[in-house]
């Protein structure tokens, strides 16, 4: 037998005749089994507590690695933006140099004097932009992060058991004291097990996605965003929700829902600043938003002819810069850029003009009819012109016949002002008739129609001023241009 009060084994004689006769006595085998089970339970509780500490340390490690990753991505983003900025400035400077070389070749003194002052100012501004520290590094290669683990290591080394004390003042030799110790020990073990389970529990919703800033970029009026989940993520992810504001500080709206971690959004406003964020979701709910990334669309448009939307009779070559047509009927080809706000100007230079064709220049919706002259349906606004005169056309309505056509060496300018919602055409720097169309709103793409008597060559900003000889009627498209001074306040000719 075993005396619970004295915590010692006793014989039957001591139990009946000795001091243990009034004590709480239990079978020795049962008490041995009870002590063994209590020891195993306490060992399991200790293992659970240690595992919870290890798990908490692992999660904290993942958070710290996330901070390091964000710092690295921020530095890469800053460096990448600086590279893009310098590349753009270099491209603009190269185009400006080539344009200056062409101006120097100008044989007309009055024409040279007309643009020389503005050209000198542009060169000075370009030089000042390079001088203002464009090549100085924006960020340091060193990481300003220091991990202080010494206090935690000291706490781990000092981790030990604390003495369990009874709530009573004296552990009396009585049956009540023994029962109280047993209940208090069970209650403490239950609390420790609950604490260990709480520490080891992982949230069910997905964590915050990490934006990969080095892969986020803009091109013309489209933005591309990329993201990923942080390392050591155990929660399942069923998809992502990408949100974008309106480019003017307005409300966010959903632009993509799916499983991909890379998304490109087209058709945005030029010269606008967009804010984007992403969150993950699964069957348990939606996780928190990522940090907001700011993306700036291009201030001017750089575009070529679009092979995906051109009529099948249109043949594009020279990196989609040259357009010809296999048909004697008019066929439509669009540009790769789309405009919804701002002021945009581009020019087309006539290198060769044979057999008096009447090409049409203007703007159109993406779903314009492409097997007839531009402007004959309600999806296009155009000016078609021959060698003597021009007309404006929309919905097959011909208006504002104006004297003055095109010939070899002529330049046709298109000014789309979506701030004032009008469209104006120019021939050789002079406004051709009144503003062609007013109260236009929506999304428009550069467009023109041509037949086999016309060949159109699209050149980028670097090739501005260069002319090429082609085998038939040719028109050179120049994009990315600022609105010239000569067309900002034009003189209206009498109709």
Report the portion of residues in β strands.
Answer: 25-35%
Question: What general form does the structure show?
Answer: elongated
> How would you sum up the major sheet?
9 strands, mixed
How many H/I helical runs?
5
For the residues shown, what is the average pLDDT? 76
Oligomer: single chain
Helix content: 25-40%
Instruction: Count the E strands.
Output: 27
Please describe what this structure looks like:
The protein is of the alpha+beta class and 495 residues long. Helices cover 28% and strands 27% of the residues. The protein is built from 5 helices and 27 strands. It has helices at residues 12-17, 28-104, 109-131, 150-157, 175-200, and strands at residues 2-3, 8-9, 25-26, 210-211, 217-219, 222-228, 239-244, 253-258, 262-265, 273-282, 285-286, 293-296, 314-317, 322-325, 331-334, 343-352, 360-364, 380-385, 389-394, 397-403, 411-417, 422-427, 430-431, 437-438, 445-450, 454-459, 473-481. Strands 13, 14, 16, 21, 22, 23, 24, 26 and 27 form a 9-stranded mixed β-sheet that branches. The longest helix is centred in the N-terminal third of the chain and has 77 residues, at 28-104. The radius of gyration is 39 Å and the shape is elongated. The N and C termini lie far apart (126 Å).
């Amino acid at each position: 037998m075993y005396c619970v009060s004295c915590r010692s084994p006793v014989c039957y004689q001591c139990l009946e005749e000795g001091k243990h006769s009034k004590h709480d006595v239990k079978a020795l085998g049962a008490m041995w089994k009870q002590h063994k089970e209590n020891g195993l339970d306490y060992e399991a509780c200790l293992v659970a507590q240690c595992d919870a500490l290890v798990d908490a340390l692992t999660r904290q490690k993942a958070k710290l690695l996330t901070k390091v990753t964000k710092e690295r991505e921020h530095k890469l983003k800053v460096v990448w933006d600086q590279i893009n900025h310098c590349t753009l400035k270099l491209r603009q400077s190269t185009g400006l140099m080539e344009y200056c070389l062409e101006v120097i070749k100008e044989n007309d003194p009055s024409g040279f004097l007309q643009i020389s002052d503005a050209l000198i100012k542009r060169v000075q501004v370009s030089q000042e932009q390079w001088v203002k520290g464009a090549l100085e590094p924006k960020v340091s290669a060193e990481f300003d992060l220091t991990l202080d683990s010494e206090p935690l290591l000291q706490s781990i080394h000092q981790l030990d058991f604390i003495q369990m004390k009874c709530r009573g003042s004296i552990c009396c030799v009585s049956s009540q004291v023994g029962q109280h110790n047993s209940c208090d020990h069970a209650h403490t073990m239950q609390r420790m097990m609950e604490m260990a389970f709480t520490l080891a529990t992982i949230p069910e919703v997905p964590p915050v996605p990490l934006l990969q800033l080095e892969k986020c970029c803009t091109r013309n009026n489209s933005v591309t965003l990329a993201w990923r989940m942080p390392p050591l993520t155990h929660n399942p992810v069923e998809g992502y929700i990408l949100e974008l504001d309106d480019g003017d500080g307005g409300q966010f709206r959903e632009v993509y829902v799916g499983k991909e971690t890379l998304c490109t959004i087209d058709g945005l406003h030029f010269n606008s600043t967009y804010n984007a964020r992403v969150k993950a979701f699964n069957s348990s709910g939606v996780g928190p938003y990522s940090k907001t990334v700011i993306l700036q669309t291009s201030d001017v448009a750089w575009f070529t002819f679009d092979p995906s939307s051109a009529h099948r009779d249109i043949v594009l070559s020279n990196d989609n810069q040259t357009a010809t047509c296999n048909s004697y009927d008019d066929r439509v080809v669009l540009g790769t850029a789309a405009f919804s706000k701002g002021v945009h100007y581009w020019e087309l230079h006539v290198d060769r003009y044979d057999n008096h064709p009447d090409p049409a220049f203007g703007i159109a919706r993406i779903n314009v009819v492409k097997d007839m002259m531009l402007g004959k349906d309600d999806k296009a606004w155009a000016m078609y012109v021959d060698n003597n005169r021009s007309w404006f056309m929309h919905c097959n309505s011909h208006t504002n016949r104006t004297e003055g056509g095109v010939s070899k060496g002529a330049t046709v300018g298109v000014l789309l002002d979506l701030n004032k919602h009008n469209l104006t055409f120019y021939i050789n720097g002079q406004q051709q008739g009144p503003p062609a169309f007013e109260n236009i709103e929506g999304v428009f793409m550069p467009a023109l129609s041509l037949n086999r008597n016309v060949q159109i060559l699209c050149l980028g900003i670097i090739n501005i001023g260069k002319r090429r000889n082609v085998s038939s009627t040719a028109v050179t498209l120049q994009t990315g241009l600022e609105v010239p001074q000569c067309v900002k306040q034009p003189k209206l000719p009498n109709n």
